[in-house]
Amino acid sequence: MSATSANMIRYSITIAYLVMTSLLLTGCDQAEVVENIGPSKANSLSSEVLARTDTASIHHRDLPLSDQIKLYNLDYQVYQLTSASLRETIERQGAHSQTVQWQLPTPDSPKAHFPLIPDWTLGNESSPWQLQLFCTLQSRPCSDLLVELSALAKHTKQDLYVQYYHFWHGFHKHAVKIAGATHCMQPSAKPSFLEALQTKQGQIDMAVLSAAIDLYSPAADKVYKCMQNDETLTYLSKRYDQIQQAGIRKAPSVFLNGHYLARGYELSQLFVAIKDDIEMISSKINHDLEWLQSWKTNNARSPSQDWALTKNNESVMRVSVGSRIGDFYIASVTEHGFGLYKDGKVEFIGQPQTSENQLYSTNQSTSADLHSNHQAITTSIAEEKTTNDHNEKFIPHDAKARYEAAISQLPKQALPQNWLDQQLMRQSELEQDFQLSDGQFEDKSLVKLSKDDIDPFYKTLGMKPGDVIMRVNDEWIHEQSNTLFQTLANEESVTISVMRKGKPVHLAFQVTP
User: Fold this and answer.
1) Rg (Cα) of the chain, in Å, rounded?
2) DSSP 3-state assignment of 112?
């Protein structure tokens, strides 16, 4: 190749580069830019076909999520550089005082692919169900959503799974892990890591988070170890700002079919936000329906028998210790109406529930698990099941009366006064074994014993590492009111109720001379 030819090629490349730069800096829209560099039209990055085989088309969204994040990070850097240069050009041309139409396209962030295995309560074979909603019933906005979400289910004719979290009982598990990663990320990598999280506006699952940690952290193993540290979790329980920095706002949060809705924090916007997201996840809904239909076919039951889908042998009545005591329940919505379980009572709203769309399983073991789990939180509410033909209902008992009856029948362990006085002199030392629990009572964190080795004093009382102290002489114990030592010093008869591995344990003592 002659020197003249080589110079012409370099000259042509330079001209092409200058033309491309000029098009970007003068605010040319995405379609015009693409038409100048190739025959194809501009497409959304996620829907763009990158390659075709004999049997399938491979899109950008089919690439490994970690690679999508890396590519997005590069695209976003180009966007930032171009945006800064564009602003300088506008200022230089004196156009800052004019109306400017910003046409520089923002790169699309990778979409998280949430694995969805339904673990909500389902209706039975003969009862078409459309929507399942988890909410805290003391949260009035969530209760108000029932009517709108029912209308939405009828409008879309699709199955929806909605989880509603109200943040007075803490942030959902995704946000806690995101905040933990943010807290544990090395200082040099934290700005880039936070920027990546912010651009996704909180729509992050654990796969995305792990990919981001591996991408930005120079020592990912140390980050994961730090995230699992008890000290980190205790720190995060008081640092909501760490979670907010990761793009999760301190407001009610909604998951639709496993997807975190970053919009719709106000009730008036929530309905619109859910409708906007339905189209995006319609393919996933169809996939889930195929899986569900296969599951139902392989687990056929009698049409007159109710059934419930459980996960890891957990009861369908799953009451979270992290929620306020006794108010986290299930609402089931079908075309027949819906039923709520609240404060130990079943309240039916809409048409009465029958055996065709009963909220609970008739399976005896599941009912026992339900009672056990609920009793583990409220300590004393019990359900009694009666059968009348094929219609079933739960009859609650007075919680306080049952609690008092259970306590009165406990055998009391003798505590010598001299020994107890000596132990209480070490109160400051004994208090070091206390930690804040994930559970809350009236917005205040409960306390628990350390999971490590505890002081022999507690072992003498029959307590074990990890016990959550619920009540002392029927008074709730929490971070602002721990009367354990005061009660032991002043009362002759003491009853301590703790939560141990999800079950209530009552300890009774009689102080003797």
Assistant:
1) 29
2) coil
